[in-house]
Amino acid sequence: MLIGFSLFVAIGFLVAFLWSVKSGQYSDTYTPSVRMLFEDEKSKKEKESVKELKEEKKHDN
Known about the structure:
about 85% helix
């Protein structure tokens, strides 16, 4: 019974893996390696935009 259940689980993982490969989940191998280099710039821009919004709200009141 346990062997049958383990085969069922293994086949489920195999199907999920093949589906993710077919849908392009692993097609981009370059972006993840450089994403960490640009996250600081992205977070700085987000912080600046939040500051600008807060300043605009202060001026509106």
